[in-house]
Specification:
Helix content: 10-25%
């Protein structure tokens, strides 16, 4: 998959921004760019921030619920270097009774380009059993609303083809 197949920076920049920050020097590796482990962490933080408005707060486990990651597919397109301004943008593709499918884009806002894409399947967990459970009705309705909004965008997201809801 190439960047030319992905949405453009301008198309992605209209989505709400999450995890906006400069690349900290502590995240740099020996190659002088953002260490590979931090791309996924920053994208994951952006996804977490984006679902708060859907009724999935950061402290959801205190209420007996959680989201667990089940699968990821990662693509790196352009390096991020120390000091580059970055942000995440999130697109929800679909959901099943107990899972959701998202694409998270990490943008290099300094150079106005797509840096990284993380496609993820995440699960709703009942923390009393630590097993998957149906989404609460309000969260399911909010997910459906957001999925419909994202599907109405004037461009089609590119997915790996290897992740799917079950």
């Amino acid at each position: 998959m190439t960047t030319s197949q992905q949405p453009t920076y301008d198309q992605l920049a209209v989505l709400p921004a999450y995890s906006e920050q400069p690349v900290p020097i502590a995240f740099e590796d020996v190659n002088g760019h953002l260490n590979v482990r931090h791309y996924t962490g920053i994208a994951s933080e952006g996804l977490d921030e984006s679902i708060v408005e859907l009724g999935i707060p950061q402290n959801w486990p205190a209420a007996g619920h959680a989201c667990f990651s089940a699968e990821h597919h990662l693509n790196y397109f352009a390096e991020l270097r120390t000091g580059d301004q970055m942000s995440t943008r999130v697109l929800l593709l679909g959901r099943s009774e107990r899972a959701a499918h998202a694409v998270v884009y990490l943008l290099d806002d300094t150079h106005q380009r797509l840096s990284y894409v993380m496609e993820e399947i995440f699960l709703h967990i009942d923390m009393s059993t630590r097993r998957t459970a149906p989404w609460p009705e309000d969260v399911a309705a909010n997910l459906d609303r957001r999925i419909a909004e994202d599907a109405a965008l004037p461009w089609t997201p590119v997915t790996s083809g290897c992740l799917a809801l079950r």
